Input
Amino acid sequence: MIGRMDLKSKDVIIDELDFSTMPGTNTAVLHAKYVKVPLRNAYQPDGPWEFCLTNHSRNYLDLKRTYLVFTFDITDTDGNFVKMDPKLLETSLSYAPINNIASSILKTITLHINSQLVYSNSTNHAYKSYFENLLNYSQNIKDSTLSAAGFFHDTAVEEFSSLGYQKRCEMVYNNKPVQVAANISIDLMNQSRVLLNSCNASLTVYPNHSDFLIEGRNLGDKKLKLNVRDVYALVHEYELTDGVTNELEAALIEHKLVQYPMISTQVRSFYIGPNRLDAPANTIFTSKMPRRIFLGLVSAEAYNGSQTTSPFNFKPYGLKNVHIDYCGKTIPGRPLELDFENNKFIEAYVQMQEAMGHSRNNSTCNSISAEMFKEKGFTIFGFELSPVALDSSLFELVIQTNVSIRLDFKEKTPEYGLYCVVAAEFDSLVGFDQLRNPLLDAVAH
Output
C-alpha cells in the first residue's frame, strides 16, 4: 500500500524531472573588477597608513571583497639578513612571523564614510582576526586559502615540531621579501551588501610593533625587526546598468534609508596580576547582551610583545572555573570544576565547539582536537548567551545589561601576570540616509 506520511505533505517533482525551470539572468551588473588602491599619505613604517577606498565613485563597492596586501621581510635592527637553517629549527636560531601575519600586522583600524566615523576598534585587531580564522575553519582551509594571509595550521603553539611554525620559517629564511594579503575583517566588511555609490570611504590603519609580530627560538641577544616594505588595498567594484542605478536611487529617496544588518565583533582584554587565585570582577560590556563570547588566557609577556613567545599561546594556567554573569544569570549554570592536569576539561571543549556550531555535523570543523585544547595552546572557551547565537539571519531581542567575567584558579597566576582576551558578538545595524550620511546603531557596545 502506498500513502503519504501526512496529509499536509504536498506534491513535488525532483529536479531531474524539471524541464521547465530556467536559471535567472543577470540584468543589473554590467562589469565587476578589482582596483588597486595605493596609500593616500606618505609611507611611514609606524603608520598611519591611509587609503581612499572609493572617492564618490558611481560604482558600488563590494565591501566583503576588500583586501590589504603587504610586502615584508625580517632583518636585525641594522637591516641585515639573519641566516637560519630550516632543517635544524630545534637546536639553532630560528624565527618566523606570527600566525595570520597579514591580519596580525594591523593593530587599529578606523573607517570613515563621508567624513563620519563608522568603525573604530581597540588595539586587539590581531586577536579578533585570529579567533575568526582559528575557530571557523578547518586545517584544509588554513593550509590552502588562508595561507595567502600567512595562516598555517599549528598542532602546538610555540613548539619546533609544529608544521605551522616550520612553514612560517620557510616564508622568510631565504632572504627574499614575502607578500601576504588579508581581507579587512571589520563589521561593515563582514556582510554581503555593497556600499552605495557616491560615497567617500576612507580607511586608516596603524601596525603592531616587531616584538609582537615575530616569534623566534634560540635568539640569544639578537633583536629582529619586521619591515613592511609596501602596502596597498585591493577593492572590488560593481558597475550597474543605468536603469538599476536610477531605481536604487529612487528607492532611497522614497524610503529615505538603506540599512546594513550585521554581526559586530568586539574585543576587550583585562589584566590579571601575579600570584592570584582569582581574577577581579571585570565588567567587560555595559550596554546589551552579546550573542556569543569567546575568551582565552595568554601571558602578559606575550601579549605585550616578546620575540621568544607567541601572543596566540592560550593556556589554562591552572584555571578551575570560568563563568559569565549577565542579566542576573550565570553561564554555565553550574561550576565547570576544571582540572586540566587530571583531564577534567571535556565539558569546556564541547561547549566551545557547540558555540561554533561544529558539533554534531559532518560539514564544518576547526581541526582543534581535545588534546590541542588541553595543552597545545588552544584553550579558548566559548559560550552561547543567545538562543539564536548560531543563526546570523535572526536578530536577538535587545536586552540592556552588564556582562562580567569571573575566573578562579587552582594555582597562583604566573610571576608577570596574565591577560584575558575576550571576543563578543553583537547584533548591529548601520544605515545611510538619502544624503549618504551614516546612521549608527543607537545601542553602543
